[in-house]
Specification:
Largest sheet: 6 strands, mixed
Structural class: alpha+beta
Oligomer: single chain
Number of strands: 30
Length: 430
């Protein structure tokens, strides 16, 4: 493997990431399913609900009986009894009749809607005044409306959130097959690095990247293990890489990725059997000197090695924009690289920001409430919501304050020379 520095576009780099296949699958129990991605359809064994059920407390009625009913022109129905959840009705609802029902109660035969109790008034002697019309199916949970027997309740590729976990419980899926969560090893390199508990001497800095990168990995739902600080020595770096590759799907190595005298990542990779250097440089700022390599695994799969910049802001921005979506991709999410689905807010830029054509700039911004306009109207002018302001936090890539003070990242496309104050953009939340 030969070293090179051939800067790829973000799109080309992302295409390389997509080529890595999602990881294999494993079974998990229901209480461990949150955040995972389904690797197989979940088929409902029975209809959900099992029968038509009331969605509100009120009265089960025939909708036709209340056609044209209003507050000033009520209808009067006779109540034949009450339907409890434990005791389905043993009677049918005939025209001009109704049945009191609680939420979840089985709809009696003949009834096709529920009028909420708030829109009724008991007059005594089983007569009920109805003060509004209802449509067929209104306030009724229909049989099979959530899931139908023999059909998928949730499909392959679904990311399981708490609401999907609820669906699994509802259909009795106490265990599901999901894509395996990536195992990630984090390595920091540099003779100048010392642990956080140490007092640095002039020329030394505390290791930040091990901890921030591991936190980002865990927040992405993956396993993270830190190997600590590795000195700028080729043999030591090779040994750390080999150790990381033994049981990791991804190795994140920060430092040693730019073209410099102490940058040994490419050299260390060249000593790993079958390692293929896919990219050395991506047109992104901050984060240009990013390395991507593929290494065959003993199990027949492949491992990814990332050489991230040592500068703390650069490493984190690359992870936000490319690394975390890659981990989601390995976890089985088909939409991992779809920015339209990333958590974002629409914002108005507070000032001009310059950029250089040919690279994507990702600007750290602080989001502030939109100020009132000259008429004293803030947040809603003419019925249109005013987006909040995004204040750029510009600074060198070695400064953490541009991230600690930031709420989001705003992208400047590679073809643009900058963004204009007052223009609207998506701000991707971090």
């Amino acid at each position: 493997m030969t070293g090179f520095f051939n800067v790829l576009s973000v799109e080309a780099f992302t295409d390389l990431l997509r080529a890595f296949p999602p990881l294999g699958t494993e079974p998990v129990e229901l209480h461990h399913a949150d955040g995972r991605v389904l690797a197989a359809d979940v088929i409902a064994a029975e209809d959900l609900p099992l029968t038509d059920r009331a969605g509100m407390d009120g009265y089960a009625v025939r909708a036709a009986d209340l056609f044209g009913t209003t507050e000033t022109s009520p209808a009067y129905l006779e109540c034949d009894g009450r339907v409890d959840i434990e005791h389905p009705a043993a009677f049918a609802v005939a025209p001009g009749r109704c049945a009191a029902i609680v939420t979840g109660g089985v709809m009696p035969e003949g009834a096709d809607a529920v009028i909420m109790v708030e829109h009724t008034h008991e007059l005594g002697a089983s007569t009920v005044e109805m003060r509004r019309a209802v449509a067929p199916g209104e306030n009724v949970m229909l049989r099979g409306e959530d899931a139908m027997a023999g059909a998928p309740a949730l499909v392959t590729g679904t990311r399981l959130r708490p609401q999907e976990v609820g669906m699994l419980a509802a259909v009795g899926a106490t265990g599901v097959r999901v894509h395996r969560a990536p195992r990630v090893v984090v390595i920091s390199t540099g003779d100048e690095l010392v642990p956080p508990e140490a007092t640095p001497r002039p020329g030394q800095v505390r290791d930040v990247n091990s901890h921030t990168l591991a936190a980002l990995v865990r927040r992405a739902g993956c396993e993270a293990r830190c190997l600590g600080i590795v000195p700028d020595e080729l043999d030591a770096l090779e040994a750390a890489l080999r150790e990381g590759l033994r049981d990791a799907d991804v190795v994140l190595l920060s430092g040693g990725s730019s073209v410099g005298v102490r940058d040994l990542t490419v050299a260390a990779l060249s000593r790993i059997e079958g390692a293929e250097l896919l990219a050395h440089g991506v047109a992104i700022s901050p984060g240009k000197p990013t390395i991507l390599a593929r290494v065959p695994g003993e199990d027949g799969g492949c491992r990814a090695v990332w050489g991230l910049p040592g500068q703390v802001t650069s490493a984190q921005v690359v992870m936000f924009v490319l690394g975390v979506p890659f981990l989601h991709h390995l976890s089985g999410r088909a939409d991992a690289f779809d920015r339209s689905l990333w958590p974002a807010r629409r914002v108005r830029l507070a000032r001009n920001v310059a950029s250089r054509q040919g690279r994507e700039d990702w600007v750290r911004v602080r989001i502030e409430a939109a100020p009132c306009d000259h008429e004293g109207i803030g947040g809603d002018a003419g019925g249109d919501a005013v987006p909040p302001l995004a204040v750029p936090l510009l600074g060198k890539s070695g400064l953490l304050r541009t991230l600690t003070g930031a709420h989001a990242l705003v992208r400047i496309p590679a073809r643009a020379e900058g963004l204009i104050a007052g223009s609207e953009h998506d701000a991707y939340l971090i």
